Amino acid sequence: MTREVFKMKIGFIGTGVMGKNMAEHIGDKLYIYNRTKEKARSLIEQGHIWCDTPAEVAAQSDIIFTMLGYPADVETIYLAPDGLINNGKQGQIFIDCTTSSPELAQKINQEANKKGIYVLDAPVSGGDIGAKNGTLSVMVGGDEAIFDRVKPLIDKFSSAVTYFGDAGSGQHTKMANQIAIATNMIGMAESLYYAHRAGLDVEKVLETISKGAAGSWSLSHLAPRILKEDYAPGFYTHHFLKDMSIALEETKKMGIELPGLELSCKLYSSLSDELKETTGTHVIYQYYTQAR
Fold first, then answer.
1. 9 assigned to active site
2. Active-site option among 151, 174, 242, 276
């Protein structure tokens, strides 16, 4: 089975900050498409094959990965007349690594099944560092037999891949992931700001607390960037706001309240449009430094 999947023609749609690095881990000759061709330039120079439309990727590939920005992008790429499903063929496998709506993942799966196409929702966590190092965590929903079949490919850009159930399960798991990060980011920013206002050596504080019970991925990987005033995006703030909005929509459907998630979404929403569009999620620290 492993040998079979590696012989298949593979496509990749969405070569931004995350997608580009993921594609580089998957293989040497992918059929690629991105809305802005320039963002795929380095992949083209490495020998990957540019396609002018998603339909062209569908025509050339047996398995297609997608890594897009918003649910609206996912819906367009998969369900538009010139999208993957309408131009796909029986037996193809589509793997969407975008963080998107669980409901949309279920809808796409239903439409794909009508044509004998398989779709997995497989959102990832680990940011730009995980994508570069091939150590992303992947959460998968969809047909389990198809998951078992393509897992060797997903393993190429991940260090942890877990199957959770039917279509939409991967997206629900990613929402749980983002909810955990949302409140953790506030705690990280407030901890650093408190240490700063207390007149402490913040670098020493960070080195100490990151090794104890307060330790987290954000504290180890993003807090050092804050101290360097490096807010370059490993994961864009506006994409994080999108994720939190999806999670809040899901909580309404479930009839539950998550005050921590609501507060985090409110604080991120208060940032300037420029910060949302150009910086990484750790920019939340500037909420405290600029507001006081």
1. no
2. 174
